[in-house]
Amino acid sequence: MHIPPYDNRNGPIVDVNDQRVPLTYFNIVKLRRDEHFTSTAAGYETCIVPAHGTIDTIVAGPDFAEVAFTGIGERTSVWENDPSAVYVPVGATADIVCRSADAEVFVGGARFDVAYRPFVVRPADIDKVQYGSDETKTHRKIKHILGKSPPGRVGRLLVSELFTVGAGGWSGFPPHKHDTDRPPVESHHDEVYNFRFRPEHGFGLQLLQVDDDRLGHAYQVISGSTIKISRGYHPSVAAPGYEMYYFTILGGESQRPLIQYFQPAHAYQVETIPGIKDMIAKFK
Prior knowledge:
It is a single chain. By secondary structure, the chain is an all-beta fold. It has a single domain, classed as Jelly Rolls, CATH 2.60.120. It is 2% helix and 48% strand. The chain has one helix at residues 276-282; strands at 2-3, 24-32, 36-39, 44-52, 55-61, 64-72, 85-88, 93-98, 102-111, 119-121, 127-131, 140-146, 157-164, 169-171, 176-177, 179-182, 186-198, 203-208, 217-222, 226-229, 236-238, 243-252, 261-262. The strands form five sheets. Strands 1, 11, 12, 13, 16, 17, 20 and 22 form an eight-stranded antiparallel β-sheet that branches. It has a five-stranded antiparallel β-sheet with strand order 2-9-4-7-10, with no helix packed on it. The radius of gyration is 18 Å and the shape is globular. The model has no long low-confidence stretch (mean pLDDT 95).
């Protein structure tokens, strides 16, 4: 469930066919200027997103010529400006080259079996939504990197960056889950989070309640924490005085659109949180 921060030495934090969240993949790659890394995840489509720094990426696949994307990443941290990204299809490899003094690169993936074509996402392409309010302690901002897009471009993968707005507050509330494939009521999506806080020594809690009638669990998360979610209701909260960011990867079992099922005892609060219905519609 909770993976504390550690030096993964550019090896997957959530590898292909993970026992808990087999529909998702996650790696953090750290490079210095001119260093290379070849990213590949057999059976998974991936999205390469610099957390900070600038990279070039050359994508090569068995049924298309190499495609080069240059100057990916225009920010010094996840707190500054908007992200850029490169979509890497199933069966392809991506050669990542650092073009800044250093770079930290997130690689998120979802299991899929159809090879599409690579493409780049620039800051102008990011789909943003902000909802909630200070009064309801639910004020947050989402930057969809791979959110809504035409069919035939992305298979099962959704990638976003989520921020609490202000210092402290709730996210993923009302409690919701997506562990049972029963459209149109709910979809099955495995999910992976990687957290960051500002100031960096901040912290929050990730809650998980698998059964409606039983108490759940709480995991303290800090900068660099990774959370794997396969089932259950899973709201999170940032401690007062700290801003919380998390990189979010969703992999669908049978479809890309995410259908959240809100916990019945708390579902009425969907009607009390400003803009939350727009947020729900964006996860498509």
